[in-house]
Amino acid sequence: MADQVKTSALISTARALVAGDKGLLAMDESTSTCNQRFAELGIPQTVEARRSYRELLVTTPRLGECISGAILYDETIRQRTREGTSLVEVLLRAGIIPGIKVDLGAKELAGFPGEKVTEGLDGLRERLTEYLQLGARFAKWRAVIATGEGLPTQACMEANVHALARYAALCQEAGLVPIVEPEVLMDGSHTLERCFGVTEEVLGMLFAQLYTQGVALEGMLLKPSMVLAGKDCPQPSSVDQVADATVTCLLRTVPAAVPGIAFLSGGQSPEQASRHLNAMHIRFERKMPWALTFSFARAIQQPALEIWKGQDANVAAAQGALYHWASCNSAARRRQYGTGV
Length: 341
Ligand code: 5MM
Hints:
Blueprint: H1 2-17, E1 23-26, H2 31-40, H3 47-58, E2 67-72, H4 74-77, H5 87-93, E3 97-101, E4 106-108, E5 116-118, H6 124-133, E6 138-145, H7 154-174, E7 177-184, H8 192-212, E8 221-222, H9 239-253, E9 260-263, H10 270-283, E10 291-296, H11 298-308, H12 315-333
Parallel strand pairs: 1-2, 1-10, 2-3, 3-6, 6-7, 7-8, 8-9, 9-10
Antiparallel strand pairs: 4-5
Helix pairs in contact: 6-7, 7-8, 8-9, 9-10, 10-11, 10-12, 11-12
The structure holds 2-O-methyl-1,6-di-O-phosphono-D-mannitol.
2-O-methyl-1,6-di-O-phosphono-D-mannitol binds at residues 26, 28-30, 33, 71, 105, 142, 183, 264-266, 296-299.
């Protein structure tokens, strides 16, 4: 009985995260990634600067109109606004579900140069219990898969999908919806077709592992990369080619029991990411069994960060940019990005 109650709570949270035309805001940059983004713009790399920036994000007016959930980082889930309200509380008041990144990062995979495996399973059960108490209702774990000559190896794909499935099972045991993020990186000169093949293989292996580990598909979300040619690929692909390749690949590999798929942006510009999502909805309207939405970090945040530059005077303008890009992706779910509607 208790398990049934837990599963139905997981299912309703998973559905709420992908409901309507909303999507997720990924704001789970680890300290080193956040500092790196700040350094590029000359923003001081301090705890206070990171806190101020996260306050700017979560207090953006009307954010809850287009954002259903926000993925936080360990530092952020414990932070408060200048006035002393916890960031979790600010999100809840805006109708946004708080979530937490729980992986400890992608580390070199021993014996396989150029490949990584994501760590963080040791002690995860205890950390999940604490995050639930801090207000998180879902979690996220990212695995990265590099494409290149001889890559990805079977060893890399197996190690990563196994860790993703064990993480997902632990989350569901704790009462948190797992967002499962296998990112096929855009780095390299591989073609769109090659990315399709790698993504198809990784997702096939992933869902086999999720099944083996007993993960309830109805109570999880998938956060994949779009199927894209590598950044250095000489052959350009059109927006429609990306949309067709991405949704075709997902239709072949993601069971209909999964309530939703929320893409990462992976280094695409905000315009590209929104255009691709919009085209997927136009070309596959009513042909997809799951909700299809966004869980972008850079493609929503980057313009806001560039406006803010660490200055209080720029907060309102930066929040305007954040809202703009969040609402563009909401519009893309309605097939209205770029139509001026
Ligand atoms: C915010 O970036 C997340 C990873 O941060 P760390 O590398 O610092 O741990 C990342 O998982 C992010 O949530 C997703 O990849 C989506 O980000 P993009 O920018 O690709 O949309």
